[in-house]
Specification:
Blueprint: E1 7-13, H1 21-32, E2 36-42, H2 48-57, E3 62-65, E4 79-80, H3 82-87, E5 92-96, E6 99-103, H4 106-115, E7 125-129, H5 133-144, E8 149-154, H6 157-167, E9 172-177, H7 181-189, E10 192-195, E11 221-224, H8 233-240, E12 245-246, H9 249-264, H10 270-281
Parallel strand pairs: 1-2, 1-3, 4-6, 7-8, 7-10, 8-9, 10-11, 11-12
Antiparallel strand pairs: 3-5, 5-6
Helix pairs in contact: 1-9, 1-10, 4-5, 4-9, 9-10
Length: about 280
């Protein structure tokens, strides 16, 4: 029951009606017996400053941030933690007694699916397909895990160069064109292959990044951060070639769990969040 003591949480974005965050967050809140409520809040880009001031004024405990506000919100906050600053995006805001602090939990969600499977990346090579906004959190998570080299395989290496420059102070990050022989060489030695592009996402489910599966290290783990559909063509082909693989559901649930812990101080039931998310996805 929502009362005058209930603390409010939410997610802001534009559009936001499609968001599944309320489903999984409220499931975890109910499971933990917490007096919180989580709501999706539509915020147009031109209204972002007013929305942030309003959420602070009505004492929202915190909120998630999604497209298109992840970078735009950063100057509106009192503090941005190191990971979010380096990644260049905030997906979680904590209202700490009127002081707004920005975090990025996307990289924690990404790494959670690997850590839960005991996948060791220290000293190993990871190949990422794509170098857009989603790739930045993935790169940071991999470098924090001690990955020896993160290779960005892309269609336009020049566009990926700023990402390489931003993250090179923290580890070895290189780039190659996915039509080059170098891409094939990196596939042979990598321990992890990640799709961070939208290729294969609903509705264009038969699109797939150009991977030569016969060249991929047979022991490599394959990860697609897409979660609609649950099995992309990329994942289907990876499994057909004998690779263990995972989609983006656990990443989405994991980043949400990390955010909820920041707001409440309680560790949420990740399994509960994943089940609620999976059911909502059908």
């Amino acid at each position: 029951m929502i009362t005058g003591r209930t603390q409010n949480l939410g997610v802001i974005g534009w559009p936001i009606a499609h968001s599944l965050s309320p489903v999984m967050q409220n499931a975890a809140i109910k499971q933990a017996g917490l007096d919180y409520n989580y709501t999706a809040l539509p915020v147009a880009p031109e209204n972002l400053p007013a929305a942030v001031a309003g959420l602070k004024a009505v004492h929202y405990r915190g909120w998630n941030v999604t497209i298109p506000h992840k970078a735009a919100i950063m100057p509106l906050l009192d503090e941005v933690d190191e990971a979010a600053r380096i990644i260049g995006a905030v997906n979680t805001v904590l209202n700490d007694n009127g002081r707004l602090v920005g975090y990025n939990t996307d990289y924690l969600g990404f790494m959670g699916a690997l850590n839960s499977r005991g996948i060791e990346l220290s000293g190993k090579t990871a190949v990422l397909l794509g170098a857009g906004g989603a790739a930045r959190a993935v790169v940071w998570g991999l470098l924090q895990a001690g990955t020896a080299e993160v290779v960005l395989a892309v269609r336009n290496p020049a566009k990926a160069q700023p990402l390489v420059e931003d993250f090179s102070p923290y580890g070895r990050v290189t780039v190659c064109h996915w039509a080059e022989d170098l891409f094939t060489e990196q596939l042979r030695k990598c321990s992890l292959l990640v799709n961070t592009t939208p290729l294969g996402m609903t509705p264009q489910v038969e699109v797939c990044p150009p991977v030569v599966w016969e060249a991929l290290n047979p022991k490599a783990f394959v990860y697609d951060i897409i979660y609609t559909p649950a099995q992309t063509r990329f994942l289907r082909e990876a499994r057909q070639h004998g690779h263990e693989a995972v989609n983006g559901e656990e990443m989405l649930a994991g980043q949400g769990a990390a955010a909820l812990e920041l707001w409440t101080g309680c560790q949420p039931d990740l399994d509960c969040m994943q089940k609620a998310l999976h059911q909502a996805l059908g």
